[in-house]
Amino acid sequence: MSKETGTPPLIKMLSPLKKKLDFTYIAIIILSIALYVGFDDLITGAASGTARDTISAALAAIFVLITTMYLLNKQTDIEQTKKLEEKIYINKFKIYDEVINVLQDIGYIEFKISDESYKKCLNKHFECEMVAPENIRNLSSNIQDFITDNYEVGKDNKLEGDDLRKIRKDLFEFTRLARKDLNISNDGKIDTTDATTEDNNKELEENIINNSGQKKTKIRFKGEIYNKRRLILGIVNYAIKEQKIKTFEELIRLFPDHDSTEGKPSNKKCNFVVKLKCDYAGDAHRVFGKTEDLIKLDNEDEDEVIVHNQWGGKNFDYFLKQVQEKLAYEFVEIDPKK
Prior knowledge:
The protein is mainly α. The protein is built from 11 helices and 5 strands. The chain folds into 3 domains: 70 residues; 120 residues, no CATH class; 117 residues, no CATH class.
């Protein structure tokens, strides 16, 4: 017996072979050989030619009957499998289409996660779990985690900046993987020869994701030029050096959690400006997690510090206002065309 599964070793060895061979068909071959060997003496020992012919015809009829029954059963199985595959394909297409529609509503029409879109996302996520391949299930889980992190009952749940960009990027990736799973070729037809190749047109992807009419703001701070996300990291690093901050307790007093949520309490997982790395178990894409972006304070007893990287709209404006009031830092917005 196998220690891991309790499966007899011989059966375990034959299991890959079983997937490739039809043992019913092998049984028919064995039966044919057995009929030939077992009844050979009876046929040859028959008193007359008529008896031998009768016995041979009877055996042939039995063999044909068995083979016909097998082929009919096999054909039935094939037809049932084909019908099931067609049903799954149609169901997949419908689910994928509905997922794409709700992500379009969130990312390009409503710019927020409404109660209705949250319910739809949750419902379609579990439907994907039923029929989708692993790569789409994983992406669906990531999307659902993002939706859950940014949704609160009764709140506006507006998406701006990098949050909006992320949902659009997920929409683009989901569409690409869905096309591949459904074997839809570039001309919109079902590709029966090979799955569609990955669309590596990064320019097209960026155009789809950034098609919002919003300018990409650049800001100058202490001689360096940042986008919104990197500016937050730059401010935290600069403040640590200027204010000679040595402990995380001092740092969190300077940058309290509510500075990231317009001064209001929030149940979102990323409702912070800074956090100890050991205390964070959320989405790695929502913080500056690269080695060069981690902050190490002078207090060696404390873990590295991470900075939240999802900033846009009102949250960003509120944070900047708090920094200007507390630290008197100045910022210069740069024309995005330059």
